[in-house]
Fold this sequence. Notes:
Blueprint: H1 12-23, H2 28-35, H3 39-49, E1 52-53, E2 59-60, H4 62-91
Antiparallel strand pairs: 1-2
Amino acid sequence: MSTRNNGKRYNDDFRKMVVDLYHSGSSVKDLSSEYGVSNVTIYKWIKELTPVEGTDGKEITPKEVDAIQKENLRLKQELEILKKAMAIFAQK
């Protein structure tokens, strides 16, 4: 029976440290061999944790953008439900 790694093997601080080391000049290959993390995983962390500058000058990570988009979709769905409810109550 094998144990399954659900992607939670490394904590957020460790991931951020590896990404910071990458940004400070360390190569992915060196980080991979030093910390025992695959190159693909490190590249994924870099993509997730590297902030980009928004229109208002604030930095935001792609992970935060995804969260905002999910929340926006949820709010749009709630608004549609409320609009339908208002139409039903307006008929009564």
